[in-house]
């Protein structure tokens, strides 16, 4: 919906409330998001312990945020596919498998960046 085109369009604050609701629902219902949040907390603890520099904090924040973003989008795609069909459908499989692949691609990339950042902080590279 185009913002402002309809007086019933939710306000910015209400839309933000829906987004928070979506985040809470995803965390409550999706095991993978809990795992990713736990890994994000671990990365922050490692950053604090190793006293990484500002640029490294930016990389850690970007990686954690992007992985969570990808998992949230993946969860939304799964919900839409389930809404469209409960039957076995090759296209449903393709959509879910590719959405899952996007999360794993980003997670592996984030893990590589994390290894480099923390190895550098430990003076290993
Ligand atoms: N309607 C469907 N038609 C065909 N294959 C499906 C369908 N629904 C699920 N699948 C297959 O089962 C796999 C698992 O689907 P599911 O919806 O259980 O997601 P999931 O792997 O449990 O995701 P998550 O762990 O993130 O919740 C999909 O990747 C897909 O290969």
TrEMBL record:
Pfam families, A to Z: DAGK_prokar
Record localization: Cell membrane
The keyword Metal-binding appears for this protein: no
A GO molecular-function descriptor: kinase activity
Identification of the protein by name: Diacylglycerol kinase family protein
Family affiliation: Belongs to the bacterial diacylglycerol kinase family.
Protein's UniProt keywords contain Transferase: yes
Transmembrane annotation, as ranges: 35-52, 58-77, 98-122
EC number, UniProt record: 2.7.1.-
Membrane topology summary: Multi-pass membrane protein
PANTHER family according to UniProt: DIACYLGLYCEROL KINASE
Keywords linked to the UniProt accession: ATP-binding, Cell membrane, Kinase, Lipid biosynthesis, Lipid metabolism, Membrane, Nucleotide-binding, Phospholipid biosynthesis, Phospholipid metabolism, Transferase, Transmembrane, Transmembrane helix
């Amino acid at each position: 919906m185009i913002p402002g085109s309809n007086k019933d369009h939710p306000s910015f604050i209400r839309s933000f409330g829906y987004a928070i609701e979506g985040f809470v629902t995803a965390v409550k219902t999706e095991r993978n998001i809990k795992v990713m949040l736990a890994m994000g907390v671990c990365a922050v603890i490692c950053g604090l312990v190793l006293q990484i520099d500002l640029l490294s904090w930016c990389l850690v924040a970007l990686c954690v945020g992007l992985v969570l973003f990808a998992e949230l989008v993946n969860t939304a795609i799964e919900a839409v596919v389930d809404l469209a069909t409960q039957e076995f459908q090759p296209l449903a499989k393709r959509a879910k498998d590719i959405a899952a692949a996007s999360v794993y691609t980003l997670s592996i990339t984030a893990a590589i960046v994390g290894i480099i950042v923390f190895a550098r902080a430990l003076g290993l590279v």
